[in-house]
UniProtKB/TrEMBL annotation, chain A:
A cellular-component GO term for this protein: proton-transporting ATP synthase complex
The gene coding this protein: atpB
Family: Belongs to the ATPase A chain family.
This protein's name: ATP synthase subunit a
CDD domains found in the cross-reference section: ATP-synt_Fo_a_6 (cd00310)
Keywords: ATP synthesis, Cell membrane, CF(0), Hydrogen ion transport, Ion transport, Membrane, Transmembrane, Transmembrane helix, Transport
UniProt-annotated location(s): Cell membrane; Membrane
InterPro entries: ATP_synth_F0_asu, ATP_synth_F0_asu_AS, ATP_synth_F0_asu_bact/mt, F0_ATP_A_sf
ATP-binding as UniProt keyword: no
TrEMBL record, chain B:
Subcellular location, principal: membrane
Key word 4Fe-4S present: no
GO molecular function, one term: proton-transporting ATP synthase activity, rotational mechanism
Protein name in the entry: ATP synthase subunit c
Species assigned in the record: Janibacter hoylei PVAS-1
């Protein structure tokens, strides 16, 4: 099983090919018609490692925390307090803390695979992973909305009260589209698009640098140094974006949950 | 000189201008707000990030349309 980034284009080819979306298609092996890709293998590995780490660190929870527990609590407090509590409100947020923390951990570590040296491939850069995560969020926020307000009440709550009668159908239609189409679509595409574009940019800088160094003239050979430097800068920038996207994902999730729970609009 | 490539690349570049301005305006307003009232930071930060995410969604749509 090969778990490394794809090899750089062969040197001496003469012509530079800019990366295409095909660089994300990395099949490893096939089992009964289902192709297991590089991203799936890394997702399984990172899920197992993070789960084991979280379970071992939280097993011996004590009032006086050990060093590991202190680290874990620091990590856990961020999605719990700054996201779930602030967005959903102190009264009802407890029920959703497991979901929010799990989503945050998963998205963060899947994103971080994009700058992890052996993977160098964000798992969430494949559209299937964001879709699966968003499917969970989609079911949860509609479910709690229907549960709280009933079937008709949930649709009624989408339109803010006090609007003139003739505008209500228009607003209702717009809100219906927002709730059922735009929200899940943007949530999935935002995560996917950021990871996809970021990985493409890093890949472009690295391959262009390799091309300049190996195939270019004397001037281009000098140009390869700033190109590689730029690739390094983009990796640092990606680390920031990956964390920010995990934060935005759970922030929007809890804002949708808060919207479905809210009594007023 | 011959230039080859995809015209939709230029289209995506143009469409990214709008969200770029929007993101700039959002963070300018956020910085202004925090500079005037530093204790409002905690309140303003999620709002700023939320607005940033919504503006950014437009750029992401453009990126997706580019590959269609």
């Amino acid at each position: 099983m090969i778990l490394t980034a794809p090899a750089l284009p062969a040197a001496g080819g003469g012509e530079f090919h800019s990366p295409t979306p095909e660089i994300f298609w990395q099949p490893l092996f096939e089992v009964g018609g289902i192709v297991v890709t590089n991203q799936m293998a890394w997702a399984a590995i990172v899920t197992a490692v993070v789960s084991i780490a979280l379970i071992t660190l939280s097993r011996k929870a004590a009032v006086v925390p050990s060093k590991g527990q202190w680290l874990l609590e620091g990590f856990y407090n961020f999605p719990r307090n700054s996201v779930a509590r602030d967005m959903i409100g102190t009264k009802e947020f407890r029920k959703f803390v497991p979901l929010i923390v799990t989503l945050f951990t998963m998205v963060l570590f899947y994103n971080l695979m994009g700058i992890f040296p052996f993977a160098m491939n964000p798992v969430t850069g494949k559209i299937g992973f964001p879709i699966a995560l968003v499917a969970v969020v989609y079911v949860v926020y509609h479910w709690i909305g229907f549960q709280k307000m009933g079937f008709v009440g949930y649709f009624k709550h989408m339109v803010p009260p006090g609007l003139p009668g003739w505008i209500v159908p228009v607003v209702f239609l717009l809100e219906l589209i927002t709730y059922f189409i735009t929200r899940p679509l943007t949530l999935a595409l935002r995560l996917f698009g950021n990871m996809f574009a970021g990985h493409m940019v890093i890949y472009l800088f690295v391959t262009a640098g390799a091309y300049f160094l190996l195939d270019g003239g004397i001037l281009l050979k000098f140009l390869s140094l700033p190109t590689f430097l730029m690739a390094g800068v983009m990796v640092l920038f990606e680390a920031l974006v990956q964390f920010l996207q995990a934060f935005v994902f759970v922030l929007l999730t809890s804002s949708y949950i808060a919207g479905a729970l809210a009594d007023d609009h | 000189m011959e230039i080859s490539g995809n015209l939709s690349l230029i289209g995506y570049g143009l469409s990214a201008i709008g969200p770029a301005i929007a993101v700039g305006l959002i963070f300018a307003a956020y910085i202004n707000g925090v500079a005037r009232q530093p204790e409002a930071r905690g309140l303003l930060q999620p709002i700023a990030i939320l607005g940033f995410a919504l503006a950014e969604a437009l750029a992401i749509f453009g990126l997706v349309l580019f590959f269609l």
